[in-house]
Automatic annotation (TrEMBL):
Ranges where the Mandelate racemase/muconate lactonizing enzyme C-terminal domain occurs: 150-245
GO biological process, one term: peptide metabolic process
Family to which the UniProt record says this protein belongs: Belongs to the mandelate racemase/muconate lactonizing enzyme family.
Organism for this UniProt entry: Pseudonocardia bannensis
Record-given protein name: Mandelate racemase
The protein's required cofactors: Mg(2+)
InterPro entries cross-referenced by the UniProt entry: Enolase-like_C_sf (IPR036849), Enolase-like_N (IPR029017), Enolase_C-like (IPR029065), Mandelate_racemase_C (IPR013342), Mandelate_racemase_N_dom (IPR013341)
Keywords: Isomerase, Magnesium, Metal-binding
MF (Gene Ontology): magnesium ion binding; racemase and epimerase activity
Length: 384
């Protein structure tokens, strides 16, 4: 099977509500680049890049892409470089992409996902099998609240839990007093069984503020504290000053970031993405190195549509140390049954079938490739 070409799209899905966090209070989620690659055997593969200009890491080492940069680099550099390749030759494909474009992992991830989808469909095997087999059938849902007024947070968390969510993720890092009070109110409203995790998105101004807030939140039993401050040195100081595990997200893009976080004792765990390292192939390399250090992860992302979310679920189920509750959406299709709030950020999608959600677990769509059927009418409807 050989890649013969492909097509890029920029698609915007309708939102259930706005979703913001400390480092992004302006740009709306849900405007992503999609790609379809075609092969000489008539099999196509789909990929997605939820690129955002405001998303990056500390020190300017990792920085924002946009749907437009993904389309430009994809059409003019990356896709031409891998045309003629077998999509199963994924190491060669990454080598070719890296030879023509430095960085820009989200653009590369979109094509990497499309290659895995096409290769799996060609072989009649799911992507999880190409990644080494699956350890679980789905991912524990963490329902993400975003930066909302406190009353709305509590009300939405109650609904999400009533619909089956067992973990709530709270966006913090905006106002220290609010961040402590909100976690207290959530614990009171949700009871002792529900897990609560917090994500500061580098929002605290000082190490002392981050330690003070996290220490106060620990009174209400939080499972972990994600990226409270920017930079690995500051993260290491917070990690030394609190008792809950500190998770790296903005600080953990590549395999080398994992090595540095470990050497600096800056994080116990990290947020594994398909996109930050540059695709499923690179994500597995990163996760395998983390495992050597005893580090574990969730599978995070940027509220992917059904294509990218399927890639997240294949990665999460095929990666032994990616077991933490994760913000993988419950992909929802307009008019279909399913939860209305728990794991739901968009009210429609570009795939034909909604994803399963049972006992607090988002279920892996199983089938050849990513296991999803793309609805090209929906792409036409929501494309620019
Ligand atoms: Mg995060």
């Amino acid at each position: 099977m050989r890649i013969t070409g492909g097509e890029f799209f920029i698609v915007t899905l309708p939102l259930r509500r706005q979703h913001t966090w400390a480092s992004n209070t302006r740009v709306s989620i849900g405007r992503h680049a999609l790609v379809r690659i075609d092969t000489d055997e008539g099999v196509s593969g789909w990929g997605e890049a939820p690129a955002m200009a405001t998303w990056g890491g500390p020190g300017g080492v990792h920085y924002g892409e946009t749907p437009e940069t993904v389309v430009h680099l994809g059409e003019d550099y990356l896709l031409p470089a891998i045309t003629g390749c077998d999509p199963l030759d994924i190491a060669v494909i990454h080598d070719r992409m890296d030879a023509v474009v430095k960085g820009n992992p989200y653009a590369k991830a979109a094509l990497d996902i499309a290659c895995y989808d096409a290769a799996g469909k060609g072989l009649g095997r799911p992507v999880w099998a190409l990644l080494g087999g699956k350890f679980r059938d789905g991912v524990q849902l963490a329902h993400s609240l975003g930066l909302l007024p406190m009353d709305e947070c509590v009300a939405e968390a109650r609904t999400a839990v009533a619909e089956g969510a067992r973990t709530i993720k709270v966006k913090t890092g905006h106002d220290a007093q609010r961040d402590v009070e909100l976690v207290g109110r959530l614990r009171e409203a949700l009871g002792p069984e529900i897990r609560i995790r917090v994500d500061g998105n580098e929002g605290y101004r000082t190490v002392h503020e981050a330690i003070a807030v996290t220490t106060a939140q620990q009174e209400f039993d939080i499972m972990l504290c994600e990226q409270p401050v920017a930079g690995d040195a500051a993260m290491a100081k917070v990690a030394a000053g609190v008792s809950v595990p500190v998770m790296a997200d903005e600080s953990a893009w590549t395999a080398l970031d994992i090595v540095r976080l470990h050497e600096m004792n800056a994080a116990a765990c990290y947020s594994l993405y398909v996109t930050k390292p540059g695709g499923l192939y690179r994500a597995r390399q990163q996760a395998d190195i983390a495992a050597q250090y005893g580090m574990y992860s969730d599978v995070g992302g940027s509220i992917e549509m059904g294509i990218g979310n399927a890639a997240n679920l294949h990665l999460a189920t095929a990666t032994r140390n990616a077991w933490l509750p994760s913000v993988c959406p419950v992909t929802t299709v307009d008019g279909a049954a399913g939860p209305s709030v728990a794991g739901v950020y968009y009210v429609d999608d570009v795939v034909s079938e909604p994803f399963g959600f049972r006992d607090g677990v988002v279920l892996l769509p199983d089938g050849p490739g990513l296991g999803v059927e793309v609805d090209v009418d929906k792409i036409r409807k929501y494309a620019e």
